[in-house]
């Protein structure tokens, strides 16, 4: 892992080519059109093409759910339930309620909060199994009050869905799971097929084809975000433990060859120790090819002159995951403006957030933490403004409204108010 200065890092970042998604978009749009036109038949065709499986049934059967229960261990179920309790407790606090205010002059104003009717959760497959994604997406939707939740996920080579994912679905109360992945799954959720019911909103991470498909169906359905590869940024000084930081960086690098693992430090000595530790730990990792490419292409140890410079760079990057492994981290939290999730101290690794702490692990990536938030209960609820005026209350603002409408040359707007005036009084 290379050690660079902040100037070198910024220069590298500028020179990196912007990813060209034109070819991806062409493929994705073709898939969307085909699924819209031919439904289940195209889902089977694309699943055979991309996953090597010709599906007999697109929807997971009751027998497959029962089989999955027999294939997972009790410690897994116990751990899953413990994580569920923490996630439930954290997200319960986020639930918003409808509210109304009234005044003596006959005005009622408020906001009606309503859960979305249906949600589709995309759970990635392929390189790993992600039961934690089920929990992080389904639990806040359930708390919000969403009645219809379906999961779609790529099948394995044997035509089955990973049993850990199915058990997570059962534990969260979801009994509709489709064995479809990729852009075709997003299209099916957005527009519906003979088997797949269309939904109001699609959530969940995926590869570049899934991300681009979500972008193209947005507007016909809602989406959570367009997530990119995983990111971690560790801000460390001499109080950090190199062994811990190295392990945390590698934990994110194993997600994807395009994942980004960065450490910003004020200490050259720490940077050298961390580099040695990363090289040592990489010798014993399982996903060596993925990690090595991720670290080589996107991993950097950046040496800065002072914490102020480090905070500036962190806010510039707006990382998905930020670990503050510095002296008095809580006192320094006020300097962080842009980050998806912030992990404080040597004993709060990012992986804790992936599985057990409770806050959502679906987070803004690619710098979008500058304006986006983690997935939450609020993402599954919508709000309607409520307005009621009495005749007397309307009369008190009639002239002002007419004046504003006529200033905008919207005479029909003005007339909508004027017709309610009779002898100078609203009726």
TrEMBL record:
Enzyme class, broadest EC rank: oxidoreductase
Cofactor: Zn(2+)
GO biological process, one term: L-histidine biosynthetic process
UniProt binding sites for NAD(+): 122, 184, 207
Gene3D superfamilies: 1.20.5.1300, Nitrogenase molybdenum iron protein domain
Annotated metabolic or biological route of this protein: Amino-acid biosynthesis; L-histidine biosynthesis; L-histidine from 5-phospho-alpha-D-ribose 1-diphosphate: step 9/9
Catalytic activity, EC: 1.1.1.23
Origin superkingdom: Bacteria
GO terms, molecular function: histidinol dehydrogenase activity; NAD binding; zinc ion binding
Binding-site residues, Zn(2+): 252, 255, 354, 413
Residues where substrate binds: 230, 252, 255, 321, 354, 408, 413
Active site per the UniProt annotation: 320-321
Gene Ontology terms: cellular component: cytosol
Signal peptide: none
Keywords: Amino-acid biosynthesis, Histidine biosynthesis, Metal-binding, NAD, Oxidoreductase, Zinc
Cofactor details (free text): Binds 1 zinc ion per subunit.
Catalytic function, reaction form: L-histidinol + 2 NAD(+) + H2O = L-histidine + 2 NADH + 3 H(+)
Family: Belongs to the histidinol dehydrogenase family.
PANTHER family to which the protein is assigned, alphabetical: HISTIDINE BIOSYNTHESIS TRIFUNCTIONAL PROTEIN, HISTIDINOL DEHYDROGENASE HDH
Known role: Catalyzes the sequential NAD-dependent oxidations of L-histidinol to L-histidinaldehyde and then to L-histidine.
This protein's name: Histidinol dehydrogenase
């Amino acid at each position: 892992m290379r050690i660079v200065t902040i100037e070198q890092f910024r220069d590298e970042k500028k020179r990196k080519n912007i990813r060209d998604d034109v070819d991806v978009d062409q493929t994705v749009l073709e898939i969307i059109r085909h699924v819209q036109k031919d439904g289940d038949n195209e889902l089977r065709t694309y699943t055979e093409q991309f996953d090597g499986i010709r599906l007999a049934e697109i929807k997971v059967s009751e027998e497959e759910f029962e089989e999955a229960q027999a294939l997972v261990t009790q410690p897994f179920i116990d751990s899953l339930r413990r994580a569920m309790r923490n996630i439930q407790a954290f997200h319960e606090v986020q639930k918003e309620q409808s509210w109304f205010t009234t005044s003596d002059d006959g005005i009622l104003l408020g906001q009606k909060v309503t859960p979305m009717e249906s949600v589709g959760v995309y759970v990635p497959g392929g390189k790993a199994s992600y039961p934690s994604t089920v929990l992080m997406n389904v639990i806040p939707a359930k708390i919000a009050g969403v009645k219809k939740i379906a999961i779609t996920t790529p099948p394995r080579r044997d035509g089955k869905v990973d049993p850990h994912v199915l058990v997570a679905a059962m534990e969260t109360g979801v009994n509709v799971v489709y064995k479809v992945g990729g852009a075709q799954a997003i299209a099916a959720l957005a527009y519906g097929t003979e088997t797949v019911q269309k939904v109001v909103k699609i959530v969940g991470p995926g590869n570049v084809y899934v991300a681009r498909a979500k972008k193209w169906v947005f507007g016909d359905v809602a989406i959570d975000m367009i997530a990119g590869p995983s990111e971690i940024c560790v801000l460390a000084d001499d109080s950090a433990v190199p062994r811990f930081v190295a392990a945390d960086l590698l934990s994110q690098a194993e997600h994807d060859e395009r994942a980004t693992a960065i450490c910003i430090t004020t200490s050259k000595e720490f940077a050298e120790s961390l580099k040695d530790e990363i090289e040592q730990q990489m010798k014993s990792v399982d996903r060596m090819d993925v990690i090595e490419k991720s670290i080589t292409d996107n991993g950097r140890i950046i040496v800065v002159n002072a914490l102020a410079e480090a905070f500036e760079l962190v806010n510039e990057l707006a990382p998905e995951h930020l670990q503050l492994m510095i002296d008095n981290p809580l006192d320094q939290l006020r300097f962080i403006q842009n980050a998806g999730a912030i992990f404080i101290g040597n004993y709060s690794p990012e992986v804790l957030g992936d599985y057990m702490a409770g806050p959502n692990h679906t987070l803004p990536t690619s710098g979008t933490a500058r304006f986006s938030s983690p997935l939450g209960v609020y993402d599954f609820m919508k709000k309607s403004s409520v307005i009621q005026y009495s005749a007397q209350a309307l009369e008190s603002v009639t002239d002002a409204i007419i004046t504003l409408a006529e200033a905008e040359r919207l005479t029909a707007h003005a007339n909508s108010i004027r017709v309610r005036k009779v002898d100078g009084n609203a009726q």
